[in-house]
Design goal:
Strand content: 25-35%
Number of helices: 9
Shape: globular
Largest sheet: 8 strands, mixed
Oligomer: single chain
Structural class: alpha+beta
Radius of gyration: 22 Å
């Protein structure tokens, strides 16, 4: 086991085995790349200033000073892996290269509660998939024939759609309740107004780490070379708007008003110990979607709902949510995905669609087989027919104004814990 020379609590999301990448600022400084160890944010620009990356054959060290990670990621996995390995070595117990440099430590180590996190990448394109069989089945049962809940194409292709990149925001950014057209079943005409059915969707996202040219396809065997890392992703939805608009072209205003991501990108290298086999896919996928080995990950996922009447800090990525203030409403796992990330990316590019560094693809809602593992309010309250009791005595069918949704994710095995921190958002009243 590797131990760090700085204090890291056993239940921290940010062990020395993690070393995620993000963008932070503090004390009025410009946003810049960082990593996280325990309760410390580590400024990578300072490590670069003191020469700790000089021998890694990085041609342009200014990537450590830029307000997005795109250029750093674009160095390629061979170099970003070396950067991650160097950081691990610098903080490993017994290595005094950094520990003995008091000036470097003074400037590089920042208390996490002093740091403001920013969007880690400039997102050029965003695609949302629909890759959890249980979620697709639940929705099919609710809105179509239960005997034919899955549409005919679902087990043949990773279904997805292109979403709005500009409204993806960092954890802690509040989102206003959207307005739009809705139509009740007993109404002849639609009406306009604030959505009454704002919902969350518990998803994982992956960040593209390597660009392709228009016309090129990514082979399934190479797909993970194009994935830099994973994030938590909350795809906010307005179910009543969605119900009215989705035929014939799918989601539009019901999905583009805000999606929220966790601030730290956890690399695939950090998640290696948590690989597991995926489900047996019947019918067998077409050859371009077939991949050997373990390409699923066992990552525990949680959703906590906090009543708008509560006042607690949800920005600290390791904050504990007290039961009197919040309710754990979903405990799911990324292992419940039917299609894995490599399959999603291979399908995305098979027609020649080009991808760019910093693009985000999301998994779609991840729901497990039990009610407590459903990944949306739509499923948890079963279209509002099973209201969820809250600690303050109120109930929820969907999300109320000023409620906060907090998502958490972590993997744990053999004493190694890798976490993502908080992905939180408060739903504000609709703007006039």
């Amino acid at each position: 086991m590797v131990e760090a020379w700085i204090e890291i609590k056993p239940d921290s999301d940010f062990s020395i085995y993690n070393i995620p990448f993000g963008i932070y600022s503090s004390d009025g400084n410009e946003p810049r790349p960082a990593t996280r160890l325990g309760d410390k944010v580590v400024d990578l620009s300072v490590l670069a200033d003191f020469g700790y990356f000089d021998d890694l054959d990085i041609d342009d060290l200014t990537v450590f000073y830029r307000p997005y990670l795109n250029d750093l990621i674009d160095l390629g996995k061979p170099l970003t892996s070396k950067i991650r390995d160097r950081i691990i070595a610098l903080f490993t117990s017994g290595n005094d290269d950094l520990k003995g440099n008091t000036d470097a430590c003074e400037f590089a180590l920042i208390e996490a509660d002093r740091a403001t996190m920013h969007m880690p990448v400039k997102v050029g394109n965003y695609t949302d998939f629909y890759a959890s069989e249980q979620h697709a089945f639940n929705v099919g049962v609710m809105f179509r024939d239960p005997k034919n809940a899955l549409l005919p194409n679902w087990k043949h292709i990773p279904v997805g759609y292109h979403g709005r990149a500009s409204s993806i925001v960092i954890s802690g950014t509040p989102i206003h309740r959207p307005k739009g057209q809705t139509k009740a079943d007993d109404q002849e005409f639609p009406v306009f107004g604030p959505s009454k059915q704002v919902d969350f969707e518990l998803e994982m996202g992956f960040v593209i780490g390597k660009s392709t040219a228009l016309g090129d396809s990514v082979k399934i065997s190479d797909a993970e070379d194009y994935i830099f890392g994973l994030i938590l992703f909350n795809d906010l939805s307005a179910r009543d708007i969605q119900k009215w608009e989705y035929v014939p072209l799918g989601p539009f205003l019901s999905k583009n008003f805000g999606s929220v991501i966790s601030p730290w990108i956890v690399t695939l290298e950090a998640l290696e110990p948590f690989r597991i086999p995926g489900p047996v896919q019947i019918p067998e996928a077409l050859p371009y979607l077939q991949n050997n080995g373990n390409h699923h990950f066992e990552i525990n996922l949680e959703v906590h709902l906090i009543s708008g009447n509560s006042k607690i800090n949800t920005q600290n990525s390791n904050s504990r949510l007290k039961t009197q203030d919040s309710r754990l409403i979903s405990s799911s796992n990324s292992k419940y995905l039917y299609w894995n990330f490599a399959q999603m990316l291979a399908h995305h590019t098979v027609n020649g669609c080009n991808i760019e560094v910093g693009d985000i693809c999301a998994s779609g809602t991840i729901s497990g087989p039990d009610e407590g593992a459903f990944g949306s309010m739509l499923e948890l309250s079963w279209k509002g027919t099973k209201p969820i009791p809250m600690p303050d005595g109120s109930t929820r069918k969907f999300i109320d104004d000023n409620d906060t949704i907090v998502m958490k994710g972590y993997a744990e095995k053999d004493g190694i814990r890798i976490g993502f921190g908080n992905c939180s958002v408060r739903i504000l009243p609709s703007k006039e």
